[in-house]
Amino acid sequence: MTLTETRNFIAGDWCQGEGEIESRNPSDLSDLIGHYAQASAAQLDQALMAARAAQPLWWAAGIQKRHDVLMAIGTEMMARATEIGTLLAREEGKPAAEGKGEVYRAGQFFTYFAAEALRLQGDQAESTRLGIEIEVRREPVGVVAVISPWNFPIATPAWKIAPALAFGNAVVWKPANLTPAAAVAMAEIIARAGLPAGTFNLVLGAGAQVGNSLVGARGVDAISFTGSVPVGRQIAAASIANLPKLQMEMGSKNPMVIMEDCDLDLAVAHAAGAAFGGTGQKCTAASRLIVHEKIYDAFAAKLVAAAQALRVGHALDPQTQIGPVVSAGQLAQNLRYIEQGRAEGAELLCGGTRLDRQTEGYFMAPAVFADTRNDMTINREEMFAPITCLQKVSSYSEALHVANDSEFGLTAGIMTKSLARANHFRANARAGCVMVNLPTAGTDYHVPFGGRGASSHGPREQGRYAAEFYTTVKTSYTYAGLPE
Question: Could you give the dihedral angle defined by the CA atoms of residues 390, 299, 291 and 297, in that order, rounded to the nearest 10 degrees?
Fold first, then answer.
């Protein structure tokens, strides 16, 4: 299959849609990646019916079959990480090395959950009644709708699709319309892995059409979504009549506390990486840097120097450290946040402007705001931009209070040499993931991931905790009789 074909994958077949969109390289708008189908309402219905019919067959295939299929998918993804990672970089804009790393990590998700398929175990319990045996087992939840974002167009759906398949479910996947080429590349691998027809389906289309119809469909037993808070709330409202299981990873406003006893150079390096890596288009990005007053000026000066030294350019240029923003709309929103910050009284120390490069693209200089308050818009809303905000505090207790003063709670970090502070922060930071002397971005695939507050809703993703969402528990009682 060529990556320019306009196809959805439904009921085991590649098929045309009712329309198409084009995908262009945000590093070079003259680079047309391809045209991609938009699924019709009838095709979505077909995908759901196919998934409903195939799911029992996939569960009945057994744990060895599920292991083998997921291992094949993961192994091929890792082997083709450079090829598909380059495509991902062209389409989404992250540097090619990051694209390769994302695809390789996605392959690891599949091989990890291949092993988890073999570890699916239940429990036995003693009954309070004589002669009765109790068995507790996990079974598939059924048909899972997967709705994934554009910023990690292969890794995020992989950590949803892999456990869904490992535990015997069928999948209908609607990826973000900004990154259809990456979705087709991964779907092509999954499609050849030996699943019963209909077990896995790819439906491309806009969220307002395909996405809304998918989450409101009666044939969906569970919905796993990653995206914004407003869309998450819409999904919850649209799906409530059918009462599916919900797992939603949404917004963030991640704080990194920089204490006066930290290794200053290490703190600057981690803050710059967490704030600007992936062009700031990460749910784990550090957009609030809460700095002790004793080192505030020194930290600010070093961070500005680090931001200005970052090489912003074409995603496929090996010298590039920061790629373009994903789209014209995202760039326009980023620039509005720059003006919003200025209007509210923040001082822009560097960046915040559109950059010209050899090719036409959506390039932006990383921005650092100083003298910000936690009630400013730029410290309350998720910007998804290469923009970070400095806030000055006079003590650890004030820093912790500011860090927790947010509706979000995905990741939080602290830079300190004090074991007492580190342990207190780990215990009291209102976040699902806490980092000590590390960037706020960067998590392992075998442990749970998720947040608190408006950042997350429902069971955790990744690791063994994924079974809580992708399976349902059945308790069986058997009367075995009493000996004579």
Answer: -80
Catalytic residue among 262, 283, 350, 389: 283
Any catalytic annotation for residue 249? yes
In this prediction, residues 16-20 reach a mean pLDDT of 89
pLDDT by residue (tens digit) across 100-126? 999 999 999 999 999 999 998 889 999
The yes-or-no answer on residue 484 being catalytic is: no
Structure tokens belonging to residue 48 = 């759901």
Residues 333 and 385 sit within 8 Å (Cβ to Cβ): yes
**Tens of pLDDT along 454-472?**
999 999 999 999 999 999 9
Sign of CA dihedral 431, 436, 437, 443: negative
pLDDT greater than 70 at residue 1? no
Residue 459: both structure tokens together: 């069971």
Number of H helices, E strands in the chain: 15, 24
Task: Give me the catalytic one of 188, 249, 260, 382.
Answer: 249
Domains annotated on the chain, with CATH:
8-250+455-475 (3.40.605.10), 254-436 (3.40.309.10)
Q: Tell me, what's the pLDDT at 207? A: 76
